[in-house]
Specification:
Layout: H1 5-10, H2 12-37, H3 42-51, H4 53-68, H5 76-92
Helix pairs in contact: 2-3, 2-4, 2-5, 4-5
């Protein structure tokens, strides 16, 4: 973010998308690594990150946006981890288990 500070200051229309994309990449990758690190080996997690980097980036941008909204930013880390957990299971193809059996 320090390297891109001139874009934020001198080119505000260009700085906003750069801010969200850069922080979306950083937050998305780190939150996904937290979730994947509990369930996969390091190599498997890296392979899954490379395979689905666009989805992770989009989720990271959403987390970054939540982090800039007042009051919502207090819950952004929890929302981000929950969203990444759902994304992880969607990418793995694992289905959630039903608590009650179907009728």
């Amino acid at each position: 973010n320090i390297l891109f500070l001139p874009f934020y200051i001198f080119f505000p229309p260009l700085g906003v998308p750069i801010y969200y994309c850069l922080n979306g990449y950083l937050l998305g990758t780190q939150f996904f690594r937290i979730v994947a690190g509990r369930r996969l080996t390091g190599q498997q997690a890296e392979a899954l990150i490379k395979k689905s980097h666009t989805s992770i980036l989009m989720m990271g941008i959403a987390i970054s946006f939540c982090a800039t909204v007042p009051v919502l930013n207090l819950a952004a880390p929890m929302i981000g981890l929950a969203a990444m957990l759902h994304l992880f299971h969607a990418l793995q193809g694992t289905h959630r288990q039903e608590i009650l059996p179907p009728h």
